[in-house]
Write a structure and sequence with these properties.
about 0% strand; elongated; 12 helices; mainly alpha
């Protein structure tokens, strides 16, 4: 189970524990009026802000990148680049034979452009840089949409609280009105609670999660672009590996496991 899904479950559990232990009557936290104005208002505002297609895409993003995890596997990318650098030194036929086994789509795409011919190295680099920038901008837009959605629930929660307080004030002139102030005030604030919970437990964390994914994806694509340049130049695999690993911090490099990497093969030769 990835950390994103654990975080989502944890937030729900924390909310339930607080709700169930903070009052003798936990049912006070269940109010369909508050739910209607917060959820209904957020959905309505989202439909005004984004198209239906965008909303469907947001739901898919939530499932694919958050529930399934967003951590980029740098080890896999570097392993593939190092492996391709070895194949490139054997010849173009060996490099072409390795293409079907590549799992990193952007790397496979760039290598196919290289092997197809008809484009200069500079033209290929320009195309890949443009595609990497396009992905970054689009993914950042996805994260921004969740950040925008996070503004709606608290606002509608406040609106629900205002409606509840207006209803409360209207009934203060009646008999035994003072006895109803506490329960009515609590009910009025439930909408605010719902709005804050939805924004801070779901939309804001998801937006941050997607933004983190986008930054990791940008690093990966830059690794690929630099790796392809060195593969075309038939640089030594050790140089390729160390150069690509330079995109990571020392602690991240120490945790990498490069299968069949140039370092592991060279260290194995020294041991022998």
């Amino acid at each position: 189970m990835n950390s994103s899904l654990i975080g989502l479950i944890s937030s729900i559990v924390v909310f339930l524990i607080v709700a169930l232990t903070s009052t003798k009557n936990p049912a006070v936290f269940l109010d369909w009026h508050a739910g209607l104005i917060v959820i209904g208002g957020t959905v309505s505002a989202a439909m005004l802000s984004f198209s239906g297609k965008n909303l469907v895409m947001l739901f898919k993003l939530f499932l694919s990148r958050v529930l399934k995890g967003t951590q980029k596997n740098y080890s896999e990318v570097i392993t593939e680049i190092v492996h391709l650098s070895k194949e490139a030194r054997k010849g173009e036929s060996a490099l072409a034979a390795a293409v079907p086994d590549i799992k990193t789509h952007f790397l496979k795409e760039g290598l196919e452009l290289t092997l197809e011919g008809g484009l200069s190295e500079r033209e290929i680099d320009t195309i890949l840089l443009k595609r990497a920038k396009t992905h970054y901008v689009r993914y950042e837009d996805d994260a921004h949409m969740f950040t925008t959605l996070a503004k709606f629930p608290p606002a509608f929660g406040l609106l629900g609280a205002v409606v509840g307080i207006v209803s409360l004030m209207q009934g203060l002139g009646g008999a035994d009105a003072i006895k109803t102030v506490g329960p009515a005030m609590a009910t009025a604030l439930i909408a605010t609670l719902y709005g804050i919970a939805v924004a801070n437990f779901i939309f804001i964390p998801v937006g941050e999660n997607l933004s983190k994914f986008n930054k990791q994806d940008r690093i990966t694509r830059q690794m690929v672009i630099d790796g392809l340049k060195m593969i075309r130049a038939k640089k030594h695999p050790l140089l390729v590996e160390e150069n690509i690993k330079s995109y990571l911090l020392p602690g991240e490099r120490a945790l990498l496991k490069i299968e069949g990497g140039a370092n592991s093969s060279s260290s194995g030769q020294k041991a022998a």
